Amino acid sequence: MLCDQMTPKERMEAYNKGQQIDRLPCVPIVGNTAARVINAKVSEIRNNGKLLAKAHVEAYRMFRYDIIRVFTDLYVQAEAMGAKVHCPYDQTAYLEAPAISDVSEIDSLEPVDPYRDGILPQHLEAMRIIAEEVGDEVTVAGPVTGPFTNASFLIGSENLVRLILKDPDKVHKLCEISLETCLRYSKAIIDAGCTPSLTDPMSSSTVISPLQFKEFSFPYLKRLIDYIHSRGKSVTLHICGKTKKIWDLMAEAGADCISIDNDANLLEAKQIVGHRVRLMGNVKPSEIMLQGTVSDVKKAVYDCVRQAYDSPKGYIVASGCSLPTETPFENIRAMMDATREIGYPPNKDLIT
């Protein structure tokens, strides 16, 4: 088995400078699969900072990927603002009820105090522990649910989409409140020694039109990214589903790296925005990483590298979205091993 010759931070720093690296950065986006590494239940790690930290440190040490992303689910910010989240014993949490049911209640919403509200303090504790234990060798990312998506969890996605047409001013008001939560949580993540990583699935062109994205999501993403940049941190932005028509706007918002969902085409992304932003993706999380064989995973990695290794601003091998909880360990190892086998510059015999 091939071994890494550089730490993730050494690799990324050299890659950013155009210097020699041992392989491309690789990020199988491990979320609740980390619970399986320490034989814990998903609900146990979600609400316990020390256990969440242990799960992600041990998962990193097992697979040696290039970014630790301390993720359990998308709802931790909305929950801290009053949304009701259901946490099955051993499955990913889901939104049970939004924080409010009517626009007349918007004034009752308040931005979070990340050191007090909901389970945000537990997640910040996990980030601090991870940064102290392994932050000298690997970037630790704290996921932030984007302003528009978080707003949808405050009033319900169907209600928000209706408001876009009926009362756009109320949508902007929700997004302003949501943005303030994102800013406060991002500040706390950075103060914990970590890097905010943005996920905004409701901004997908699968859900809203590019014009609606430009009006209701883009301005708030840009302000959030501007703040993160002002703190000296780069930004990775992931939007699920179909995003081709908003790639330029994602770059214009200031994203340094765009995480490409497996519904999108990596080669097209390189051709359209590869000269503006780094690309990341997009091995299929369910069809390949969860259900595929080791051979399937390696072939998918080879295909992705072939499409994007020469993207002008760089490329990170990654899953198209967070991995399902039950993703086999051997498939995560296969993703890492395939990236090591390809090396950098890539072994053309493997990717042609």
From TrEMBL:
Q: Which InterPro entries match?
A: Methanogen_methyltrans, Mtase_MtaA_CmuA, UROD/MetE-like_sf, Uroporphyrinogen_deCOase
User: Which GO BP terms sit in this record?
Assistant: methanogenesis; methylation; one-carbon metabolic process; porphyrin-containing compound biosynthetic process
In terms of Pfam families, this protein maps to: URO-D (PF01208)
CDD domains assigned to the protein according to its UniProt record, in alphabetical order: URO-D_like (cd03465)
Q: Does the keyword Transferase apply?
A: yes
Going by the UniProt record, its keywords in alphabetical order are:
Metal-binding, Methanogenesis, Methyltransferase, Transferase, Zinc
GO MF: metal ion binding; methyltransferase activity; uroporphyrinogen decarboxylase activity
Give cofactor(s), names only. Answer: Zn(2+)
Q: Which residue range or ranges hold the Uroporphyrinogen decarboxylase (URO-D) domain? A: 7-341
Q: Quote the NCBIfam families the UniProt record gives.
A: mtaA_cmuA
What name does UniProt use for this protein? Answer: Methyltransferase, MtaA/CmuA family
Source organism per UniProt: Acetivibrio clariflavus (strain DSM 19732 / NBRC 101661 / EBR45) (Clostridium clariflavum)
